[in-house]
Amino acid sequence: MCAGKADDNPNPASNPVELPNRPSAGASVAPHPQSSTERPRSKRTHTSSGEHRPKSHRPQSERKSRAGSSSTRPPKTSEHGGRRSSSHREHHRSRRDFPAIQEYPEDRAIRRGVAELGTFIDQHVVSFYPSGSSGYSGMSEMDDPRTRQPAIRRYVAQKVISSMIIADSESSPSPTKIAHEIADDLQVYSSSNGDRLDNLIGLCELGEKLRIDMEDHPASWSFGSFEEGHGNGFVVLIPALSRDGQQVVPSQRFRID
Length: 257
Description:
By secondary structure, the protein is of the alpha+beta class. The protein contains 7 helices and 7 strands; from the N terminus they run ββαααααααβββββ. It is globular and about 65 Å long. The termini are far apart. The relative contact order is 0.10.
């Protein structure tokens, strides 16, 4: 039986290898020196995905300059560009440049004031000048008990309108001065002074307010004549009020029986 062919070249003899002597268990082992070419391992941080990301080693001065430095932040701008503060100032400046709209009293305020003047005069006369008093001043309509109160109303209204309403603002007397004149002229018909003077001052102040409202209004306001219808059984208490020549409030009259 034939066997396999033997190799023509026999294996060379093995050379013995000398191993270094291992230290015994009690001997100390010197640390292995770190090679100068070996780079230190950087610390890695974990991201949300689980990957390791090396920390940034930026200089400390650069990190400080980036954190919260007000000198390096750009100024805030508006949507259309430019500094926001300057556009804000320009907006306020443009609003101040608009001319102010002049306001003036409404027509109804003046009409209402004239109606109130007539009502307050009626209340004043009824409160302080009774028709049964025995006063005498030489004025026939006031001396007559039948026409006394209407005549006193007319006198008070005429005094307030001529002195406080249609008078010029620069030469118009004070309400207190006119109130004293009316109080003195009607003293003989008054049953008691009481608050009569204070009431007259209030009437004159109302007349002064009406004058101011009429002067501030762009239209022209005027009163009619107290002599209208006089002698025909009527006494004009408050004459008609006109605006730019057109009557807007009729006269207040009192019929004498």
